[in-house]
Amino acid sequence: MAMLKTLLMTLAIGLFGRDQEWTAPEVREYDDWSVACDNGRRCEAISASAEYSQRLRESDAGDLAMPLLRVVREAGPGKLPRLFVDRRVWADRPAPRKLTLHVYYDGDGDRTGRAYRLIASPSGLDEVDPRDVPAFLAESARSSHAATRLSDGSMHGLITTRGMVAALRFVDEVQGRRDNVTAIYARGSRPASAVYPPKPLPMPAAVRGTGGRRETAAEMSALRSLRDGICGTGVDPRTLTAKLYHLANGHKLWSVDCGVFNGSDALLWLIDPGTGVPEVRNLPRPEQGRPSIVPYLPESSFDHMTGVITARYFDSSRGDCGWERKWAWTGSRFEMIEAREMRACIGILPERWLVTYRTQARRGEGRR
Fold first, then answer.
1. Kind and range of the H or E element at 137?
2. What pLDDT score does 195 carry?
3. How confident is the model over 343-356, as pLDDT tens digits?
4. Residues of 180-212 as b/e, b for ≥16 C-beta within 10 angstroms?
């Protein structure tokens, strides 16, 4: 009990306009919570932030687990918030647990409110029964923590809700729910029909890779010239390491060793769009509304089956925070496929980071 009190003491330590046009987001942090809304107006909030993860590293959680809360809400008047207890921190498939979720109140003993039912998932992403979500969110506004209990009633884990209300008010604002009957916290009398609809998602046609011949001496010379003019630290001018990917439409994609990008190995991605000469084509950055960038990327690779280039930048040696961005060549230009970001270095794997940009796969393409 003393350990729990110590942990609780340790853990205790701007908005979009009314315009319906999508504005490129950054991940926002409200105390211990982070939130992002993507280009389709889908929003996700999570009980983790850079400040929170730093405090955790400086504290001792004892024997308690540290699951996360995730709140997901699609855009549109008929979409309700979904709430999940995420037990997948530091694990792909955590051990099965039968849990209940509670609001935790400060005071002597393990003071928790009523039990909220969880729908167990083999993946460790357990969903709160949709019938319980409104009551839990309302009760949580009166506390700064939630807790999970095992089926025998014993304590399982502790979750911060400090910042949750502000994060979900942000979601209401982005989705046009402020002063609306569909709002989570900023509820009013405006009708559901006034809620912003989802934005249509782009549907880029990625050109996939195929087999093919090796590069020519002329191509290697052009690659070296482009590499020497762009790449920086760590490049050996005496050597050139390049890999050629033949694309299904006859174009060619190269990755060229480009030294180091903020401490990570980097590649320069070049395209021959049928001219016979490799070219630099910039990569768009719609997920943050920034100018396009030179295709000089850290920790990047090409999946010839999907036609997608994936780049990752890690803010920690454990690879649990940073950003992940994906692009594809569509025959005339590169287009962004997806972008994710996570500022909290707290053991969340990249495929679970907050999505800031996404596209819709064409029929038959499958997952990218």
1. helix 133-140
2. 97
3. 999 888 888 899 99
4. bebbbbbeeebeeeebbeeeeeeebebbbbeee
Give the relative orientation of helices 133-140 and 164-174 as an angle to the nearest 10 degrees.
120
Terminal-to-terminal C-alpha distance of the chain: 47
Q: What's the one-letter identity of residue 24?
A: A
- pLDDT per residue over 106-158, tens digit each? 877 668 999 999 999 988 899 999 999 999 999 999 999 999 999 999 999 99
pLDDT at 96 over 80: no
Q: Which long-range contacts (CB under 8 A, 24 or more apart) does 125-130 make?
A: 125/70, 125/84, 125/85, 125/86, 125/87, 125/88, 126/84, 126/85, 126/86, 126/87, 126/99, 127/82, 127/83, 127/84, 127/85, 128/82, 128/83, 128/84, 128/85, 128/101, 130/80, 130/82
User: How high is the pLDDT of residue 91?
Assistant: 67
> What DSSP assignment string belongs to 165-207?
HHHHHHHHHHTT-TTBTT-SSSB-SB-GGGSPPPPPPP---PP
